Every structure is written in structure tokens, then in C-alpha cells.
Amino acid sequence: MNFPPIYRVVTGHDAQGHSIVSSEGPLPTVVEVAAIPGTLFHEVWSTGATPVPVDNGPDPTLGALVLSPPAHGTRMRFVDIPPDTEEFLASASSRMHDAFSQIGEAAASTVQADSPHPLMHRTESVDYGIVIEGEMTLVLERGEVDLKPGSVVVQRGTNHAWANRSGKPCRMLFILVDGRYDPAIAAQLGRGDKP
């Protein structure tokens, strides 16, 4: 199943301060993760500060693909996730370094020999994951949740994976917000605050 392309409209202001369409059309950055064929990242927008500068600046999605949001920022993307296959699951753990390296964060992968899924990972962010089409299973270290269209996951920096056991592709929308672990959680994880 091929999902329709994402159509993006970006607004701005003209020289007199009137609202205008700055750009519209297909997303300029759509990247397939080579180590996980069929996984497509559709980069919609990102911000790099809070409060966000409201300006007519350049498109922040151009450039290298990065998993996490910028410091003090946000990232919005759609991800098309193919079904897990026996072949993928059997060889995935050896390819995960390459997959997470391509999306700018090799260190995000947390996969171990006893991990419940080969795509286990963690980012220091609060992520909203919304199932748009298809079905997905949220895999945690202790538990799983089956998700259907309209399901929303509020992912708070936990070790997790997305398992597509439905046999059909799934499209999810992710909005990632940069965060800092509570000191007690950071201590449990053996992490300090980000610089």
C-alpha cells in the first residue's frame, strides 16, 4: 500500500505584514531509511528555540535527517512503517546502528540481546505519536499496547519500539518536543542533564 504524499502549506508575512502563502506543495525532504526498507521519514517542520521565532526564515527541514528535535525545539514528521517480517526481525539488530546513524543518532538505539524488539530506542524528548492509517504496537521494556487509527501515544523519554505486526504498512504522525529528564529519572538511567 502506498500512502498519498503529504501536501504542506507554509504561511508567512509580506513586506506590509499581510499573511501570505510562503510555500505549498509536496514535502521537500522525504527519506527512506536504507537499513529498514519501506520506512519513510516525511519531514514537515522543526523549530530550534522556545519561544519560537515567528519569522519568514528558511525551510528548517532541508539538510540532514535527524531523529530528535533541536535543543529547546520541536520536530514534526510523518513516518511510514512497513510490516515487520521474519527476515527483518532476524537480521534487524545487526543493521540498527546503520539505521540510527542515517537518522543522525546512532546512540539512540538501546537494543540489547534480550531486547523485546530490535528497534528499541530512547530520546530525551516528549513525543506525540498518532496513528493516521494502519495498525501499530507500542513495545516497552515491560508491556505492549496495540494501536489503531486515532490512537495517540504520549512518549516521555522511555525505551521503546514501534512494531508493525499487522501485515500492512502504517502511517504515523510524530511531534517531538525537546526535553530534560527529571533528575531522579536521569539518575536511574545513569544520565546527566544535557549541556
Element layout with pairings:
Elements: E1 7-13, E2 19-26, E3 30-32, E4 40-47, E5 74-81, H1 86-102, E6 125-133, E7 136-140, E8 143-147, E9 152-156, E10 160-163, E11 170-178, H2 183-189
Antiparallel strand pairs: 1-2, 3-4, 4-5, 5-11, 6-9, 6-11, 7-8, 7-10
Organism: Herbaspirillum frisingense
Pfam family, one: Cupin_2
Domain Cupin type-2: 116-175
Description:
- By secondary structure, the chain is mainly β.
- Strand 1 and strand 2 form a beta hairpin.
- The relative contact order is 0.17.
- It has one domain: Sandwich (Jelly Rolls), CATH 2.60.120.
- It contains two helices and eleven strands; from the N terminus they run βββββαββββββα.
Q: In summary, what is this structure?
A:
It is built from 2 helices and 11 strands. With about 200 residues, it is mostly beta strands.
The dominant shape is globular
- For the record, the CATH architecture stands as Sandwich
Coarse structural class: mainly beta
Number of strands: 11
Would you tell me the overall average pLDDT? 93
Structural descriptors:
Mannose-6-phosphate isomerase-like protein (Cupin superfamily); 3-stranded antiparallel β-sheet; Cupin_2; globular; RmlC-like_jellyroll; mainly beta; Jelly Rolls; RmlC_Cupin_sf; 6-stranded antiparallel β-sheet; 195 residues
